[in-house]
Specification:
The protein is an alpha+beta fold. Helices cover about 35% and strands about 15% of the residues. The longest helix is centred in the middle third of the chain and has 15 residues. It comes from Halococcus dombrowskii. This is Transcriptional regulator.
Protein backbone atom coordinates (compact mmCIF):
# COMPACT_ATOMS: atom_id res chain seq x y z
CA UNK A 1 0.00 0.00 0.00
CA UNK A 2 1.57 3.27 -1.15
CA UNK A 3 1.11 6.31 1.07
CA UNK A 4 0.23 9.68 -0.38
CA UNK A 5 3.53 11.56 -0.64
CA UNK A 6 2.08 14.61 1.10
CA UNK A 7 1.24 12.58 4.24
CA UNK A 8 4.34 10.36 4.35
CA UNK A 9 7.64 11.04 6.07
CA UNK A 10 10.87 10.77 4.12
CA UNK A 11 11.54 7.44 5.82
CA UNK A 12 8.09 6.11 4.85
CA UNK A 13 8.59 7.25 1.26
CA UNK A 14 12.01 5.57 1.15
CA UNK A 15 10.49 2.33 2.49
CA UNK A 16 7.76 2.52 -0.18
CA UNK A 17 10.37 3.16 -2.87
CA UNK A 18 12.41 0.13 -1.73
CA UNK A 19 9.27 -2.02 -1.84
CA UNK A 20 8.90 -1.12 -5.52
CA UNK A 21 12.52 -1.35 -6.69
CA UNK A 22 16.07 -1.79 -5.43
CA UNK A 23 18.11 1.38 -4.93
CA UNK A 24 21.56 2.50 -3.83
CA UNK A 25 21.96 5.10 -1.09
CA UNK A 26 23.15 7.72 -3.59
CA UNK A 27 20.04 7.13 -5.70
CA UNK A 28 17.81 7.57 -2.65
CA UNK A 29 19.74 10.70 -1.68
CA UNK A 30 19.18 12.25 -5.10
CA UNK A 31 15.53 11.26 -5.31
CA UNK A 32 14.62 12.49 -1.83
CA UNK A 33 16.99 15.52 -1.74
CA UNK A 34 18.96 14.30 1.27
CA UNK A 35 22.60 13.38 1.86
CA UNK A 36 23.87 9.87 1.18
CA UNK A 37 24.67 9.48 4.89
CA UNK A 38 21.10 10.46 5.75
CA UNK A 39 19.78 7.98 3.19
CA UNK A 40 21.82 5.20 4.83
CA UNK A 41 20.47 6.24 8.23
CA UNK A 42 16.91 6.06 6.89
CA UNK A 43 17.57 2.62 5.38
CA UNK A 44 18.86 1.35 8.75
CA UNK A 45 15.71 2.63 10.45
CA UNK A 46 13.51 1.06 7.77
CA UNK A 47 15.20 -2.26 8.58
CA UNK A 48 14.42 -1.78 12.27
CA UNK A 49 10.81 -0.78 11.63
CA UNK A 50 10.06 -3.87 9.53
CA UNK A 51 11.77 -6.22 12.00
CA UNK A 52 9.15 -8.64 13.29
CA UNK A 53 6.94 -8.24 10.21
CA UNK A 54 6.72 -10.46 7.15
CA UNK A 55 9.02 -8.04 5.29
CA UNK A 56 12.79 -7.92 5.25
CA UNK A 57 15.47 -5.56 4.01
CA UNK A 58 17.73 -7.26 1.48
CA UNK A 59 21.17 -5.91 0.63
CA UNK A 60 23.02 -6.60 -2.62
CA UNK A 61 26.61 -6.05 -1.45
CA UNK A 62 29.11 -3.70 -3.06
CA UNK A 63 30.95 -5.29 -5.97
CA UNK A 64 34.16 -4.47 -7.81
CA UNK A 65 33.33 -3.76 -11.46
CA UNK A 66 36.82 -4.85 -12.52
CA UNK A 67 37.32 -8.22 -10.79
CA UNK A 68 33.89 -9.04 -9.34
CA UNK A 69 35.02 -9.16 -5.70
CA UNK A 70 31.99 -8.87 -3.41
CA UNK A 71 33.11 -10.08 0.02
CA UNK A 72 33.69 -6.70 1.62
CA UNK A 73 33.66 -6.52 5.44
CA UNK A 74 31.07 -3.72 5.45
CA UNK A 75 28.18 -4.68 3.20
CA UNK A 76 26.28 -1.42 3.73
CA UNK A 77 28.80 1.32 2.93
CA UNK A 78 30.59 1.70 -0.37
CA UNK A 79 34.32 0.95 0.07
CA UNK A 80 36.89 3.24 -1.56
CA UNK A 81 38.81 0.47 -3.32
CA UNK A 82 38.87 -3.26 -3.91
CA UNK A 83 41.18 -5.24 -1.59
CA UNK A 84 41.83 -7.76 -4.37
CA UNK A 85 42.72 -5.67 -7.43
CA UNK A 86 42.93 -2.18 -5.83
CA UNK A 87 40.42 -0.80 -8.33
CA UNK A 88 38.26 2.14 -7.28
CA UNK A 89 35.44 1.02 -9.61
CA UNK A 90 33.13 -0.23 -6.86
CA UNK A 91 29.40 -0.68 -7.41
CA UNK A 92 27.34 0.65 -4.50
CA UNK A 93 25.29 -1.76 -2.38
CA UNK A 94 21.60 -1.80 -3.34
CA UNK A 95 18.72 -2.16 -0.93
CA UNK A 96 15.22 -3.55 -1.38
CA UNK A 97 12.30 -4.43 0.89
CA UNK A 98 10.64 -7.75 0.16
CA UNK A 99 7.93 -9.62 1.88
Amino acid sequence: MRRADADATTRQRIADHLREQPAAASTLATEFAITTASALDHVEHVAQSIDGTDEELLVAPPECRDCGFDEFDDRINRPSRCPECKSEAIEEPRFTVEG
